């Protein structure tokens, strides 16, 4: 490929790479030549190649991966959350909440005020803002986080993360993501043209060594999940929170985004990476898991500067969140009966996941339930093979390979993510037997 790229200027070099893509001589994932090697081949200054690659990166044509070099960007659709509407298989891959445990909107709709909202009014609806400010203040104080914050509202957690990154970063900036990683975070970073740097997650959260290594690579933002990490179900421990704060103490201006998506459903206290002196941070809480994915409301507490930058992208009349949706969310969150139902739903998810983990363990596949809407099961066998054999038994599951930041066949995942809270006892027992059998077959054939 080195000999196919031509040009004596940065613009000509970039255009040559585009032509190779158009002709199909380059494809997603292909590596471009090292800067020095291409410069020597073309007889140009190395800075010319650097500039050409930069033009391609800014256009989203290529992605730079530090010491791993520069590769053609992969623009194919990434895996997404949700149920498979066109599958005849029984879906245990969706990671959806139980529809029966989402609140009925009838009472809340009847309470909505008819006062119209006009251009120039505050973006955050007053009543929701007051309720959320108290909620955030209590949790931040208990967790020992920053005392001062500003409140914003976005159209869900993914929208919040995307806006927070875009107001702080430019293409090719490095972002630290958990490994394994939430599918939406992978897609957000990929489409934004940022460079993902993986930080391993263990039973207590992000590892301090992993975060330190990512910061050494120059990441400008960290996206993490303090509770019910997706897909592992891990929650941040008190010990790990202190360790990560110590690592971040030397990097107060790195933007830390905490996606606390499970918040009101969680059986664990909120713990944070963000210490009281950290300067750039945001805590994001969507209502999707307990009021429903179509609610399209997420609340964001952040430092003053981050909030002001975020506000530039949330202008009335263009990108604000409907006050009707905000009032509907507040009407439910201020209802004691709805809050009691949310607590019961959280207990239900925890109990059903724990029951299934016990079934797997009893059948010889030791599993710890973690927290969240799904379980992360170590099958002790290649996940892709296990999922394929589960399909033959009528189940649609999700292989752990889909949650990797980069494709690496030599380190294929052994984990499968399963959503089981919607299954009754008999169905859980049947699935547990099939998972154990499918994993055993996968081990024998691998």
From TrEMBL:
Domain HTH gntR-type: 7-75
Keywords in alphabetical order: Aminotransferase, DNA-binding, Pyridoxal phosphate, Transcription, Transcription regulation, Transferase
One Pfam family, short name: GntR
Keyword Transcription: yes
Keyword Transcription recorded: yes
GO molecular function annotation: DNA binding; DNA-binding transcription factor activity; pyridoxal phosphate binding; transaminase activity
InterPro entries recorded: Aminotransferase_I/II_large (IPR004839), HTH_trans_reg/aminotransferase (IPR051446), PyrdxlP-dep_Trfase (IPR015424), PyrdxlP-dep_Trfase_major (IPR015421), Tscrpt_reg_HTH_GntR (IPR000524), WH-like_DNA-bd_sf (IPR036388), WH_DNA-bd_sf (IPR036390)
Family listed: In the C-terminal section; belongs to the class-I pyridoxal-phosphate-dependent aminotransferase family.
Entry protein name: Aminotransferase class I/II-fold pyridoxal phosphate-dependent enzyme
Organism encoding this protein: Nocardioides daphniae
Source taxonomy: Bacteria, Bacillati, Actinomycetota, Actinomycetes, Propionibacteriales
């Amino acid at each position: 490929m080195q000999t196919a790229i031509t040009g004596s200027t940065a613009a000509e070099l970039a255009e040559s790479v585009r032509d190779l893509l158009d002709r199909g001589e380059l494809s997603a994932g292909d590596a471009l030549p090292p800067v020095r090697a291409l410069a020597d081949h073309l007889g140009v200054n190395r800075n010319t190649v650097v500039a050409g690659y930069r033009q391609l990166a800014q256009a989203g044509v290529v992605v730079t991966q530090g010491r791993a070099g520069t590769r053609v960007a992969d623009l194919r659709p990434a895996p997404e959350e949700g149920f498979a509407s066109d599958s005849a298989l029984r879906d245990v891959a969706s990671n959806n909440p139980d529809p029966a445990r989402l609140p009925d909107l009838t009472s809340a709709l009847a309470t909505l005020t008819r006062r119209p909202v006009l251009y120039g009014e505050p973006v955050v609806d007053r009543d929701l803002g007051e309720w959320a400010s108290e909620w955030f203040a209590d949790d931040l104080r208990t967790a020992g986080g920053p005392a001062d914050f500003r409140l914003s509202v976005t159209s869900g957690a993914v929208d919040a993360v995307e806006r927070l990154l875009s107001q702080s970063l430019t293409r090719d900036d490095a972002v630290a993501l958990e490994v394994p990683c939430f599918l939406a975070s992978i897609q957000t970073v990929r489409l934004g043209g940022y460079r993902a740097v993986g930080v391993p997650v263990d039973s207590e959260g992000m590892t301090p060594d992993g975060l330190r290594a990512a910061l050494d690579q120059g990441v400008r933002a960290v996206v993490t999940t303090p509770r019910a990490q997706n897909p592992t179900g891990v929650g941040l421990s008190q010990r790990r929170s202190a360790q990560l704060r110590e690592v971040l103490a030397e990097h107060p201006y790195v933007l830390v985004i905490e996606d606390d998506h499970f918040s009101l459903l969680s059986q664990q206290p909120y713990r944070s990476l963000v210490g009281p002196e950290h300067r750039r941070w945001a805590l994001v809480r969507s209502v999707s898991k307990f009021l429903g994915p179509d609610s399209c409301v997420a609340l964001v507490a952040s430092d003053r500067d981050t909030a002001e930058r975020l506000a530039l992208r949330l202008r009335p009349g263009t990108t604000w969140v409907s006050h009707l949706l905000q009032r509907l969310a507040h009407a439910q969150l201020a209802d004691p009966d709805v809050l009691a139902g949310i607590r019961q739903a959280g207990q239900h998810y925890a109990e059903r996941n724990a029951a299934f983990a016990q079934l797997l363990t009893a059948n010889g596949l030791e599993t710890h339930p973690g927290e969240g809407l799904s379980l992360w099961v170590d099958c002790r066998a290649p996940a892709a093979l296990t999922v394929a054999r589960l399909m033959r038994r009528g189940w649609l599951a999700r292989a752990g390979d889909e949650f990797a930041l980069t494709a690496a066949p030599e380190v294929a995942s052994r984990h499968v993510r399963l959503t089981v809270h919607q299954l009754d006892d008999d169905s859980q027992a049947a699935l547990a037997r099939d998972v154990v059998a499918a994993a055993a077959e996968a081990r024998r054939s691998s």
